[in-house]
Amino acid sequence: MKKILVALLFAPLLAFASGAALHLDKWPGSVADKPALQNGAKLFVNYCLNCHGASYMRYNKLMELGLTEQQVKDNLMFTADKIGEPMRIAARTEEQKQWFGAAPPDLTIIARARGSADGSGADWLYTYLRQFYRDDKRPTGWNNVVFENVGMPHILWELQGEQVLNKDHKLELVVPGKMSPKEYDQAVSDLVGFLVWMGEPVQEFRKQLGWIVLAFLAVLFVFAYKLKKEYWKDVH
C-alpha cells in the first residue's frame, strides 16, 4: 500500500519528465543593468502588482536600484503609505479566489522557484511572457505555448499585440501592439530582470565576493605551498 501511495504521489512528476523537452529562449538581460531594472520595476508595479504581490520585498529596497526615496514614492508606491511597507496588493485573497478560482501566487521569488522546476527561471519567464496567444476556448480568451491552459490572462497584450497559433502551430502576430516585437522583447527582458533581482537582491555582491574569496585562496595557496616546501626541505 505504501509503494502505491508513493507511486501516485510522484506520477505527475514522472509524466512531466517523460514529456517533450520545452524549448526556452535565453534571457538576454542582466541584474547589473540598473536602468533596465528600474524599467522592470515600473512594469511590475503597473501591470503585475494589480493581482500578484511581492510581499517579501519592501518599497525602500527599490532604492538599491539607483532610485531616490521620492522617486519610489512618486512613481512606484501605489499600494502602501510608508516606504518601509511590503509590496502587497489591495485585493484580498478571498476575493481573488472568487474571481480567478485561485489566488495568484506571490512573485517575490518566482524566478528562483521556476529555476528549480524548469531549468533557468529567467529563461522560463522570458519565454512565457512572450508566448501568449488568443484562444477562444479558454475562459480568459488567452492561452500560452509554455504553460498550456494557463489561467492567467495576457496582461501585457496592449504592449505586445495579439498573437494566434497558425496552422503550422507557430505564433503569428495578427494585431500589432503599442510596441514593436523588438521593443516588447526588451520590455519583457527588463521585467524578468526585476523579478530575478527581487528573488535575491544581493546576488551581484555575492558573485563579486565569490571572486574575491577565490583570489584570496589562490594567493594563500602560493604562500602555503612555499611554506610547505620550506618546512619539508630537510626531511628525507
Automatic annotation (TrEMBL):
It comes from the Bacteria. Heme c binds at C48, C51, H52. One of its GO terms (cellular component) is membrane. Keywords: Heme, Iron, Membrane, Metal-binding, Signal, Transmembrane, Transmembrane helix. Binds 1 heme c group covalently per subunit. It is found in: Membrane. GO terms for molecular function: electron transfer activity; heme binding; metal ion binding. Pfam families: Cytochrom_C1. Its cofactor is heme c. Residues 35-195 form the Cytochrome c domain. Residues 1-17 form the signal peptide. Its main location: membrane. The chain crosses the membrane at residues 209-227. This is Cytochrome c1.
